Amino acid sequence: MFKNKIRELPLSEGEKIVGVIHQGKILLYLKLSIPSAIIILTFFFLFFLFSLGDKGILLFFALLAFGLILFARIYYIWNNRILVITNQKLIDIDQKGVRQRVVSNILLDKIADVYYQTKGFWQIINRLGTIYISLNDDKSGFEFKNLTSPQKIQQQILRLKADLVNDKTTKSDQTVKELTDRLNKLKAYLGEEKFNVIVGQD
Q1: Does the domain at residues 2-7+19-160 carry the CATH identifier 2.30.29.30?
Q2: What is the pLDDT of residues 189-200, one digit of tens each?
Q3: Burial 98-136 (b: 16+ CB within 10 A, else e)
Q4: How far from 141 is each of 104, 109, 132, CA to CA, in Å?
Q5: Which of 116, 122, 126, 192 has its Cβ near the most Cβ atoms within 10 Å?
Q6: Average of pLDDT values for 72-80?
């Protein structure tokens, strides 16, 4: 289901996905520890709750349902809060809740700089960090928190940006060369005098 959602992202012609990045799994495990504890403790007190009769049985299933729903919600939000990297742009999918999602696109050629910060002992030992992206307008900026191996992500984004800029420069040079070749062929076909008249030269 998640992979299908990734495939459904609107991409331009020639654009392809080169990376899908989640926040560090350690964050997921820490958040899941709460519903996991609720589920485990519910089963731990299974016999005690059942000994209370109907109210105890109802409480058992209520606690179990609460733990499972909370577990599913936390995992769903983590799994759908991603940074998608393509060869043309970054797609920031910020899953706020089960029903709320904010999607932002950042074109690679609009990026001015990419840097990262690893802060505190906890981030260092878990190889986590925050990626900061500044844009060419000097007004906009984005940050992506608690990503694993932020240095590799930074280098990947900068490399893709350089490749995109080089590709556009190459295509522009090819277009100019093709136009020059066509003009030279037209000049040879018409003759220099007629050609100069057409282009407005005396």
Answers
A1: yes
A2: 666 666 566 666
A3: eeeeeeeebebeebeebebeeeeeebeebebbbbbbeee
A4: 12, 14, 7
A5: 116
A6: 94
